[in-house]
Specification:
The protein has six helices and four strands; from the N terminus they run E-E-H-H-E-E-H-H-H-H. By secondary structure, the chain is mostly helical.
């Protein structure tokens, strides 16, 4: 005896791969499958038409979410204010030492260029770069800071790189949250 996939009633199949107890249930199963397939196709079409700019935004969102999760509870890299995730839009930002416009190739470098920064320092003090440099020296060392300051390589982001960056940081964030 098998159970019907649609109505869950027990039935004796007349064919080895039969999953429905009646033609009406088979039609309903086919309708549900068609709807799922249409949704999957629509999702794939939406992914294909995304521009590099759209993918950059998505990758950046994933990286910033990771940085916020990583640095929550630590002090602001610039002024030392404790970082909490309270309030609308979160309590702090993911601040870049070298800005996205000045160094696009460091845009997603969460280990060397992006740190948790209070909104006051990041938004109203334009990153508070001098204090951020001091905080970075304390946290990651002078060698890393010099490497970031002297890294002027040009880079053009590809679709595959951006999709990979987004997937990597979503995975890292999930692991970080599970660890906490």
């Amino acid at each position: 005896m098998k159970k019907c996939r649609h109505c869950k009633a027990s039935f004796q199949p007349s064919k080895p791969l039969q999953v429905a107890c009646s033609p009406l249930c088979a039609i309903e199963i086919a309708k549900v499958k068609r709807i799922k397939d249409e949704r999957k196709d629509a999702r794939e079409r939406r992914e294909k038409i995304k521009t590099v700019s759209d993918l950059k935004k998505e990758a950046e969102t994933a990286v910033h979410a990771y940085v916020r999760s990583r640095d929550e509870g630590k002090p602001c890299i610039s002024c030392g204010t404790p970082l909490t995730a309270e309030g609308v839009g979160g309590g702090f930002d993911a601040g870049h030492y070298r800005s996205r416009g000045a160094a696009d190739h460091l845009r997603y470098d969460a280990d060397r260029n992006i740190f948790g920064q209070c909104k006051q320092c990041n938004r109203y003090l334009s990153g508070n770069a001098v204090a951020m440099r001091k905080g970075m020296i304390d946290r990651v060392g002078i060698g890393v800071v010099d490497a970031v300051e002297n890294d002027n390589t040009a880079h053009k982001w590809t679709r595959d790189e951006l999709i990979g960056i987004k997937a990597e940081y979503v995975k890292k964030r999930k692991a970080l949250i599970a660890q906490k």
